[in-house]
Amino acid sequence: MGFYDQFKRAIAVYDEILRQPHRTEIARELRDEEDLFMLLCFSEMLGLPNPAFYYTLELYPVIIERFHDWHLRAGMEKSPLEGIRCC
């Protein structure tokens, strides 16, 4: 193992040490962003006006699989939408 490989490994270990305490914060931020995105996509169905509804309509087939996790995190035990049955 050459000097360059040892240096590269030391940098990787140092980077891992710096990231370790922030993993939960990063995961929480990503989840919050996803929840906000899901609220934006499904806001029209929940009765909230959404000017981007036309553009988010194409995303439904992609995000419908994550809809169940989202409405549970949002505090809704059952799906709030009549057209989408996930529970």
UniProtKB/TrEMBL annotation:
Taxonomy, superkingdom: Bacteria
InterPro entries: CC_star_Cory, DUF7990
Name of the molecule in the record: DNA helicase
